[in-house]
């Protein structure tokens, strides 16, 4: 089969760190264009300042990978779907739940693939964690996601806007794993969102959830962490404790460990290629719905102003 002619849109940190190497490493794709307001200067690849300019050119495109911040996701994705392109959305898939549903409908209508990606679900420990948990009685779940925003998101103004999600930008990765590995749907019971006095989005959040069996699930998100960083999910079960660390890359079970390097984006692109080949979409909004619920049910408290 001919490679999928792909354009990458929004060439910033994640596009350079992960998408470009993964596209180059997967023969199912050929990178035919880049779309970014600042010329990203990718050797041998023509660049365009907007999707309109790309579509007006004679470059033939089958698919786009959308790596912009979420605020502009819908407009760009809709334009590409209407044009008959398959679309790979970086996480989160949109600024609101409803716009993602609208994209899903557009993809179906135009018979193209929409892939709402959750990269953390492709971390090495996640699939074996999910398999192990299907057989267990789950007693308690703790999610601890504490990182230094100055290290991981320096100067990203968009992340502090309401749709930028604040600390839920990394927190939604934890939710994408939890919604994938825990066998029962769970729901938010309480949340406190700590919002810096000069920002619109939270810098920290404490959340509690439960499920149909009454399992206690807590989530501690904090962007003010210096020193050791934590991206851990700990699940206590009738057969001992499961711990996922480093965002799902390492899995510790009572009698074994699973660990691998950085396999997430290679997995995402392999999945995107298989969806396109099968004529299917993959759109799961469960992680984004929990963030929306936190904003519906959570109490917002004002905390010290944050400067980069
Ligand atoms: P980033 O470094 O700020 O890059 C995003 C790029 O999108 C910018 O360089 C910008 O390029 C373009 N863009 C288009 N419209 C924009 C707008 N209105 N505001 C700001 N930039 C705009 O962000 P990123 O870290 O790559 O994150 C992008 C998306 O990937 C986010 O949804 C994030 O959650 C997700 N993600 C990030 C990471 C990570 O480690 N950073 C990991 C996984 C997923 P031009 O100015 O050239 O248009």
UniProtKB/TrEMBL annotation:
Protein name, per record: Gfo/Idh/MocA family oxidoreductase
Domain Gfo/Idh/MocA-like oxidoreductase N-terminal: residue ranges: 4-115
Gene Ontology molecular function: any one: nucleotide binding
InterPro entries with a match to the protein in the record: Gfo/Idh/MocA-like_OxRdtase_N, Gfo/Idh/MocA_oxidrdct_glycsds, NAD(P)-bd_dom_sf
């Amino acid at each position: 089969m001919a490679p999928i002619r792909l354009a990458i849109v929004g060439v910033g940190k994640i596009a350079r760190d992960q998408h470009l190497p993964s596209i180059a490493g997967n023969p199912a794709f050929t990178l035919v264009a880049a779309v970014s307001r600042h010329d990203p200067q990718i050797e041998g690849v023509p660049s365009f300042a907007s999707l309109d300019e790309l579509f007006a050119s004679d470059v033939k495109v089958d698919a786009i990978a959308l790596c912009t911040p979420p605020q502009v996701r819908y407009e760009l994705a809709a334009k590409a779907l209407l044009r008959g392109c398959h679309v790979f959305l970086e996480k989160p898939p949109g600024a609101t739940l409803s716009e993602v549903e609208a994209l899903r409908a557009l993809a179906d209508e135009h018979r193209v693939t929409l892939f709402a990606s959750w990269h953390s679900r492709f971390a090495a420990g996640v699939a074996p964690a999910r398999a192990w948990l299907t057989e267990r009685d789950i007693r308690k779940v703790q999610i601890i996601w504490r990182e230094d925003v100055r290290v991981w998101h320096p100067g990203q103004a968009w992340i502090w806007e309401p749709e930028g999600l604040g600390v839920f930008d990394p927190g939604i990765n934890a939710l994408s794993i939890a919604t994938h590995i825990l066998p029962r749907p769970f729901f938010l019971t309480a949340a406190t969102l700590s919002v810096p006095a000069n920002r619109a989005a939270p810098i920290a959040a404490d959340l509690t959830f439960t499920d149909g069996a009454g399992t206690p699930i807590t989530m501690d998100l904090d962007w003010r962490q210096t020193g050791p960083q934590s991206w851990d999910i700990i699940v206590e079960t009738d057969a001992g404790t499961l711990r996922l660390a480093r965002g799902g890359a390492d899995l510790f079970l009572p009698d074994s460990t699973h660990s691998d390097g950085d396999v997430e984006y290679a997995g995402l692109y392999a999945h995107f290629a298989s969806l396109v080949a099968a004529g299917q979409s993959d759109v799961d909004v469960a992680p984004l719905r929990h963030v929306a619920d936190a904003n519906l049910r959570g109490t917002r408290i004002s905390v010290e102003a944050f400067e980069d």
